[in-house]
Description:
Blueprint: H1 4-22, E1 29-34, E2 37-43, H2 46-49, H3 56-68, E3 76-82, H4 86-94, E4 99-104, E5 129-132, H5 136-149
Parallel strand pairs: 3-4, 4-5
Antiparallel strand pairs: 1-2, 1-3
Helix pairs in contact: 1-5
Amino acid sequence: MASYSDRDFMRQAIDLAERANAAGEVPVGALVVHRNAIVGVGWNQPIGRNDPTAHAEIVALRAASARLETYRLVGCTLYVTLEPCAMCAAALAHARIERVVFGAWDPQAGAAGSALNILNSPAMTRRVDAFGGVLAEECKALLDRFFAERR
Length: 151
């Protein structure tokens, strides 16, 4: 079950997704929280950065690691508007993120239980607690509008 703070942080991730949308990127936003403080933010930027790894989660992880001056983000939670893909899920596990809270499920490419379950795969040396569906309707609506406008 989502807590008040989960929904509050997800609303901030939705604001970040709007930044991606304004830049013509797929509207996904993410933030990293440590001890109830935001330590890293990101939104999708692969087109603008010419970087296929510039997903919202990766951008937020890089910012949090720089701020905390460590690549081990122990005790941190990542909030993201869309279920992480395989690349992002593996990065979250390697960063030692404790918990991932996401909005919309991604049945085609989600790696937190939809298409794959990398976050809790026995093949991974680290497992990440994942909780999906927080403000899912709002997160999905952003994506639906974005893709409808491009069809």
